[in-house]
Every structure is written in structure tokens, then in C-alpha cells.
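Hypothesis: this fold can be encoded by more than one sequence.
Test: take the C-alpha cells below, design a sequence, compare later.
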């Protein structure tokens, strides 16, 4: 089982070449040798990149939880599947063996069934990083319900729009959550969200913080008594390869979030294969990814990828700076973590602290360290390499997306030589291509362009929930026949890739993808605001921060500017979440627009960065005179 580890560079080149020459044969063998199936597939892949129709392992039947839990019981029943590290280090750690995981998922699956949840029903999960989050996801997968985890930092209206989009029948939340020294009341956010969500019949509430909450008669139920009464035995639902596994929302260039749909077989094969190779996972390793399960990184590399490999995965409830800025290093030392996977924004913020915090801990258990979510800058890369990896652990800079399901471009540790700020080479089966402005493929090295992928891979999202046309438009229309990632990339002289950043209206702040459109929509709700444009500018810790240019209505002109700024940020916080608040707000008379009415964001970006040198071609601007005024009043 799981004997697909790439051992050295010649082998990587050999496997890569084969995987590209015959991707069907490549994935057929991996799927066949490393997973348990109720029934094999009749066709490895069926695809049409113009219509955006992709199917992997057609005809196969499986259940992902059998692969993640049941099949490990004979040999690994007493091995820890999950090590849960609480927010407060004084609270006990939970060690959940594969045997115990089997019991807990079985009970939870029976609770879901007792609530009338069936195959294909949508269940939204709004939980902090507690074991129940993982268990509820697996329980959904066990019975064939489609989970949609909503990051527990989203506001009530962001929750409502997601719940409504997927028409969830059930929602699972907790009374509250701990984040460092704060206690947040999650249930009250849910109460507000559910005022406008007709599809939700019941809410299951997990007790975590024991704070006072409202329980709505007939709708809300405490989970614990139901769970205690539920039997363990649960027969997994037999799923078709292309049955939906989960929906996960991501930002796009319009206000409506995109519900990316992942399906059972392809996602399982891809997340498991990439986990094993990118983290060099060996049987007794203790692997830790610090992402929140509410994002794709948590889905693929806290939960499904590790468990499909019978790994031990650490789930951490807290924040890097609580109780002190050495919490990450303390946890690595405590559990003898061997692989550590985090985000550049966390690295940058910890690098600002004294290096004594790292030095005082024994990190010698570490073998591989990873980065994900945004480009890792040179300084952060070196700090990570020097202080955490002690120059001995390869840094796997992993490029991928919610849409790709798993890691696409990354070094294979101990195989691919790393290079600071480069995600390096594609994994087997992945065919990146760079495209120029005329939509031609750029061949050769030392070049840059729009990053596309030529051939489907098993982990690719199959559609946007309820809106296949949008899926096709967003990813398959800019470069017909190819998947367009929305990112720009450069390829160096040896063919290594470096991701240069988003080419669309998505800004990555502290690793969170934020679309400018939803933020502008929420600012527009303010009665004094006429129009706004949001851009990102470089920020030392967050990678990017948000700069808003806002035009006031005549009636707003007399209002106190400082108050207005606070109100605008409150609105954003209430409609999207605190992560989308603006760092800088500049009130302007007008925005630079082209004759066709499009805001020229390129200029606004340059001004926000304080770079007035070269605005490029401004001849299509309708109102070039506004630039001077915006420049003069820039917030430094
Ligand atoms: C996994 C994840 C996807 C976007 C992606 C890109 C950026 C992710 C990166 C990276 C440079 C890396 N991104 N990893 N940029 N280097 N190693 O983050 O998914 O939340 O959907 O974000 O994140 O811009 O397009 P998601």
C-alpha cells in the first residue's frame, strides 16, 4: 500500500516523463495499487477541456473513509490518526487512534443519518479547529453527504450566502471558539446568519466554550446527547467515483463566492499521492499543517491526504503567538513533529519576534518544512531555512489552489534541489504551460507569462456548484483548451517555476484570498459612499494589505472622515469578516477610468505602493487629470 514515493532525481525525471507521455497509464497504476475500491473503473479519464467536462475513474465505486480509516485498522489501529493540540496548553492534548477515529466517525455518521441526512444532502460545518470538525467531515463522507466547511472567521452574511448557495439542510456549529486569549461566540453569528436561510432544518451545536447561547426551539440541538446515544457500527455509503465529496467556497472576481466542487475518487487519489511525495511521509512520522481546515489546505493536507496514507496528523486549535510567540516551536518539540507546513504570513510575523523564541526549542525532529498560500519572499524563505529548518530541512514551497485540489508545483524533498522563492518543478502528471498576451504558448526557458495547465489531473475541481457556465468562463475560456490558474509565473533557465502573483482581481492578504468585488459591494452599502476601488499593496507581514479609494456622495462630503473610515471597516467586517478590513482609506473625487468605464486598477496599485514612476499607457483613460489629485493625497 502507498508505495509511490519518488526516491531520487533521475527517478523523478523518468516518472515525470512517463506521466506526461501517458497520464492515463500513470494514474491508473497509482489508483489501482494504493487504494481500496468496491469496484474498479471502466475508463481512467474522460475529458473535454473546451466544455470543462472532466471525469476520472469512471464507473469506480468507493468510499473515501474506508481508505482513510477502515483499511488502516488491522495494522495501525493503535496508531494515532489525529493529535489534537488545544488553544490553551494547560488543557490536555487528545490522542485519537485509528480505532477511536473509526468509532467516533461511525457514531457521528449515525447521528447525521438520524437527522434525516442522506447521500447528496449538503451539510455546512462552521466549527473551530477541534476534533469534531474533522469527525463531522469524515462522517459526511461516510454517508455520502456533501460537506461544505465555512471558515469560522466569516461573518453572518458571508455564512448565509454560502449556506443559501448550496441549500444546506443541516448546519453544524459550536457554542464558541478560543483564539489565543479571546473567546468568540460563534453561535450568535450562526443565529444571525440563519435568519435568511430557508433550507436549514436543523443545527447541531458542539459544546466547546460553555458560554451562554440561544437554542432555537425545534431547530437547534446539542450534539452530545445524540452522539452518546448513537451506535458505532456504520456501513459506508457506496459512492461513484464522480459523486460529489465536498463544496468549498473561494473568492472570485464577482461578489458571489464560487462553490468549488470536488468529487470522491480523483480527489482522494490526488491528495494522497501528493501528500506522500511532497512531505516524504514515512510510517512513524508526525506531520503538522497549521492551516485552518476551513481552507483547502486543511481539507487536503490536514485531513484527507494524511489519513489516506495512514499518517499521524496534528490539528492545532490555537494561534502562533499564544500564550507566547513560541507556540509553534513548543508544539513541534512536544510532539516531535517531523513535517511542518505553514504559510508565509505566519513565518513573517514570527520572524519579527526575537529568534530566541525559536532557538530555545529542540526542533531536531523536523525533516521537511513547507510553505503555502502565497509567494514566499526571499527574506522569509531564509529565516525559515536558517532558524526552523537549521539549513537541514528542504523547504517545500507548494503552489496550488482550491480549484486544483492538491499540490501542483513543488519540490519533492531530498529529490528536487530547492531554490529560494521558487516552487520549482511540477509534480508527475502536471503539465504547466506559460501563455503570452496573444494567447500563444511560450516555449523555452527564462520567460514569464500566464500560468495554465494543459491536461486534466485527478484532483481538479469538476464544476462550480450550480453554475457550470461560470466554471467554464472563469477557468477554460481565457486560453481555450487549457485550465487558466489566474496566476502569473516565470520559468527560469532550468525550467523551475516561480509564481509571481494573481493576474485577476483577487488579492491574497495573510494567505486569505479576497476578491475586490465583494469588498467593494459591501462598502457600497454605506449611505455616504458613491463608489470605491480596492487594490492590494505590499505589506511586511500580511504579504498584501488593502488600500481603498472611495468616492463619497455629495451628502457624505460633510461627514467626519475618521468616523466614516471606521464605519466602512465595520461594514466590511460584518458582511465578509475582519480579514477583509482596509488598512488604508483615501477619499477621492474620481477614479481613473477607461473610455469603456473600467477602473484602471494598475494605476491605483502603483499609487498605493508609492511608485509614481511609470503608469504605462494611459491614453485610453477618460479622465487622466484625476491621477494628479489621487497622487497628492495618497495615504503613506
Ligand atoms: C492552496 C491555496 C490559491 C492562490 C494561488 C496563488 C496563491 C498558493 C502559493 C501561491 C505563490 C505558492 N498561492 N500557494 N503563490 N506560491 N506556494 O492557497 O489555495 O486559497 O485557493 O489560493 O494562492 O495565487 O492561485 P487558495
Amino acid at each position: 500500500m502507498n508505495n509511490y514515493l519518488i526516491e531520487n532525481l533521475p527517478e523523478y525525471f523518468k516518472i515525470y516523463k512517463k506521466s506526461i507521455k501517458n497520464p492515463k497509464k500513470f494514474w491508473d497504476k497509482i489508483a489501482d495499487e494504493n487504494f481500496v475500491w468496491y469496484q474498479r473503473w471502466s475508463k481512467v479519464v474522460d475529458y473535454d477541456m473546451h466544455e470543462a467536462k472532466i471525469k476520472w475513474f469512471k464507473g469506480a465505486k468507493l468510499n473515501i473513509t474506508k481508505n482513510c480509516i477502515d483499511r488502516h485498522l488491522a495494522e495501525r489501529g493503535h496508531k494515532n490518526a489525529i493529535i489534537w493540540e488545544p488553544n490553551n496548553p494547560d488543557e490536555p492534548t487528545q490522542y485519537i487512534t485509528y480505532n477511536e477515529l473509526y468509532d467516533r466517525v461511525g457514531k457521528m455518521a449515525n447521528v447525521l443519518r438520524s437527522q434525516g441526512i442522506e447521500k447528496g444532502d449538503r451539510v455546512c460545518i462552521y466549527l473551530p479547529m477541534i476534533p469534531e470538525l474533522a469527525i463531522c467531515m469524515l462522517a459526511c463522507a461516510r454517508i455520502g453527504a456533501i460537506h461544505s466547511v465555512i471558515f469560522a472567521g466569516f461573518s453572518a452574511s458571508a455564512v448565509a450566502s454560502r449556506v443559501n448557495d448550496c441549500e444546506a439542510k443541516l448546519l453544524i456549529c459550536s457554542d464558541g471558539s478560543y483564539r489565543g486569549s479571546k473567546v468568540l461566540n460563534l453561535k450568535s453569528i450562526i443565529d444571525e446568519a440563519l435568519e435568511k436561510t430557508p433550507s436549514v432544518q436543523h443545527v447541531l451545536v458542539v459544546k466547546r466554550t460553555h458560554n451562554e447561547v440561544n437554542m432555537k426551539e425545534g431547530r437547534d440541538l446539542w450534539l452530545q446527547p445524540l452522539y452518546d446515544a448513537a451506535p458505532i457500527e456504520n456501513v459506508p455509503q457506496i459512492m461513484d467515483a464522480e459523486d460529489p465529496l465536498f463544496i468549498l467556497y473561494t473568492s472570485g472576481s464577482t461578489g458571489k463566492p464560487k462553490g468549488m466542487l470536488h468529487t470522491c475518487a480523483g480527489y482522494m487519489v490526488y491528495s494522497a499521492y501528493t501528500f506522500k511525495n511532497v512531505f516524504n511521509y514515512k510510517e512513524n512520522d508526525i506531520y503538522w499543517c497549521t492551516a485552518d481546515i476551513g481552507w483547502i489546505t486543511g481539507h487536503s493536507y490536514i485531513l484527507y491526504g494524511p489519513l489516506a496514507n495512514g499518517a499521524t496528523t496534528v490539528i492545532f486549535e490555537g494561534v502562533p503567538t499564544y500564550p507566547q510567540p513560541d507556540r509553534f516551536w513548543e508544539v513541534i518539540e512536544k510532539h516531535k513533529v517531523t513535517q511542518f507546513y505553514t504559510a508565509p504570513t505566519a513565518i513573517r510575523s514570527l520572524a519579527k519576534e526575537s529568534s530566541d523564541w525559536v532557538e530555545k526549542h529542540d526542533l531536531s525532529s523536523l525533516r521537511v518544512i513547507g510553505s503555502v498560500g502565497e509567494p514566499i519572499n526571499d527574506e522569509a524563505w531564509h529565516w525559515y531555512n536558517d532558524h526552523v529548518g537549521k539549513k537541514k530541512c528542504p523547504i517545500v514551497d507548494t503552489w496550488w489552489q482550491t480549484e486544483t485540489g492538491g499540490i501542483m508545483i513543488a519540490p519533492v524533498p531530498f529529490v528536487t534541489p530547492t531554490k529560494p522563492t521558487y516552487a520549482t518543478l511540477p509534480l508527475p502528471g502536471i503539465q504547466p504551460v506559460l501563455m503570452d498576451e496573444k494567447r500563444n504558448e511560450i516555449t523555452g526557458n527564462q520567460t514569464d507569462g500566464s500560468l495554465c495547465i494543459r491536461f486534466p489531473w485527478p484532483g481538479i475541481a469538476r464544476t462550480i456548484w450550480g453554475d457550470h457556465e461560470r466554471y467554464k468562463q472563469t477557468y477554460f475560456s481565457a486560453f481555450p483548451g487549457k485550465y487558466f490558474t489566474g496566476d502569473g509565473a516565470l520559468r527560469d533557465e532550468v525550467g523551475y517555476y516561480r509564481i509571481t502573483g494573481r493576474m485577476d482581481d483577487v488579492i491574497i492578504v495573510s494567505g486569505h484570498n479576497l476578491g475586490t468585488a465583494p469588498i467593494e459591494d459591501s462598502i457600497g452599502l454605506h449611505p455616504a459612499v458613491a463608489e470605491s476601488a480596492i487594490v492590494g499593496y505590499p505589506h511586511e507581514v500580511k504579504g498584501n494589505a488593502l488600500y481603498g479609494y472611495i468616492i463619497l456622495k455629495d451628502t457624505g462630503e460633510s461627514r467626519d472622515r475618521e468616523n466614516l473610515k471606521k464605519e466602512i471597516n465595520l461594514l466590511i467586517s460584518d458582511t465578509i469578516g475582519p480579514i477583509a478590513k482596509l488598512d488604508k482609506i483615501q477619499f477621492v473625487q474620481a477614479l481613473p477610468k477607461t473610455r469603456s468605464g473600467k477602473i484602471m486598477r494598475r494605476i491605483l496599485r502603483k499609487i498605493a505602493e508609492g511608485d509614481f514612476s511609470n503608469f504605462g499607457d494611459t491614453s485610453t483613460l477618460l479622465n487622466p487629470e484625476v491621477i494628479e489629485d489621487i497622487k497628492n493625497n495618497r495615504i503613506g
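The first strand starts at residue 43 and ends at 48. The mean pLDDT is 95.
Hypothesis status: open.
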